[in-house]
Write a structure and sequence with these properties.
This protein has about 325 residues and is of the alpha/beta class. The chain has two domains: about 5-115 and about 295-305, 3-Layer(aba) Sandwich (Rossmann fold); about 115-290, 2-Layer Sandwich (Dihydrodipicolinate Reductase, domain 2). The protein contains ten helices and 14 strands. Strands 7, 8, 9, 10, 11, 12, 13 and 14 form an eight-stranded mixed β-sheet that branches. Strands 2-1-3-4-6-5 form a six-stranded parallel β-sheet, sandwiched between helices. A hairpin with a 4-residue loop joins strand 13 and strand 14 (about 280-290). Helix 1 packs across helix 10, helix 4 packs across helix 10 and helix 5 (about 115-130) packs parallel to helix 7 (about 185-190).
């Protein structure tokens, strides 16, 4: 019998992407509210309690309200908002985070889907901190660029709709200049850091795709690790992971550029270690589709695990 899936907020960017990945599958059934009932609290509560698993694609406060509506003890939830990213009682939805994490997700009733920037950052930080190569109190700096779809409906309209009051012709924009981006707490907590990282995001004139960079002065790290040491730790951590890979050092060294749209349409996350061994410097770069592994694809992967389905189904 197919599991019933309710996408609360299915008409938003992430919701539409999740629905497209589930349509045509015979192991799940999407249940939906009529358009005129989407703001009807009683109708939403009915769907949330009737579903085997609900995926929340909502603003933070609306996500909290949705969780509060659930009375059915068997209903499972994946929250794609920021509301529960560091909350007690919620399992972090990054199966590749470490040994046993996929099993933790499979056993969970409440899973918080990672933020795209945070997932990219944590994929670099957590393996290095837990391997002892990067001190937990290291002064981490992260530089990121994303397609404008990562900013939600209003930002998408500002780039695509000439009639929007916020319309822009900008080719590139650095933002979050107050250094209070909402993913920072998540990066610190899930990246095993003791100190708050310095995170600087930016947006480019392309719809989707993302690169996050972690610069490292290797000479400043304990033991003065080599680029090969950094690469080996990452490769060992993600060995045999279906969606996360670490590019070979030789392949990365031969590259003349890295394009943020290279993994669009996939659920893949790829790490590169760019380095100058003579100078004792390296930059780790994470590449992904912010709407794939960074949002909807990751939600479907978590859903598969929570329902006991093949992890790679539909991806």
């Amino acid at each position: 019998m197919a599991a019933k899936i309710f996408i609360d907020g299915e008409v938003g960017t992430t919701g539409l992407q999740i629905r497209s990945r589930l349509e045509g599958r015979d192991d799940v059934e999407i249940i939906s509210l009529a358009s005129e009932s989407r703001k009807d609290a009683a109708a939403r509560a009915g769907m949330l309690n009737d579903a085997d698993l609900s995926i929340l694609c909502l603003p933070d406060e609306a996500a909290r309200e949705a969780v509060a509506m659930i009375e059915n003890p068997d209903t499972k939830v994946i929250d794609a908002s920021t509301a529960h990213r560091v909350a007690d009682g919620w399992v972090y939805g990054f199966p590749e985070l470490g040994p046993g994490q996929a099993a933790n997700i499979a056993d969970a009733k409440r899973v918080t889907n990672p933020g795209c920037y945070a997932l990219s950052s944590i994929s670099m930080l957590y393996p290095l901190v837990t391997a002892g190569l990067l001190p937990a109190d290291y002064p981490v700096t992260l530089n990121a660029v994303s397609g404008y779809s990562g900013g939600g409906r209003k930002m998408i309209e500002s780039f695509e709709d000439e009639k929007s009051p916020d319309h822009t012709e900008d080719a590139f924009r650095v933002y979050g200049l107050g250094l209070e981006h909402k993913h920072v707490a998540e990066i610190q907590a899930r990246g095993a850091l003791k100190k708050r990282p310095l995170f600087m995001p930016s947006i480019g004139r392309f719809s989707q795709g993302m690169i996050v960079q972690l610069p490292l002065q290797l000479w400043s790290l304990p033991g003065n690790p080599s680029p090969a040491d950094i690469h080996a730790a990452l490769a060992a951590h993600y060995k045999d992971c279906p969606f996360v890979s670490v590019a070979a050092l030789a392949d990365t060294a031969a590259m003349t550029g890295l394009q943020p749209e290279a993994l669009n349409g996939t659920n893949e996350l790829r790490l590169h270690v760019f380095a100058n061994a003579e100078r004792g410097q390296a930059v780790i770069a994470t590449l992904l589709d912010n709407l794939g592994k960074g949002a909807s694809g990751q939600a479907v992967q978590n859903m598969n695990l929570m329902l006991g389905l093949p992890e790679t189904a539909g991806l």
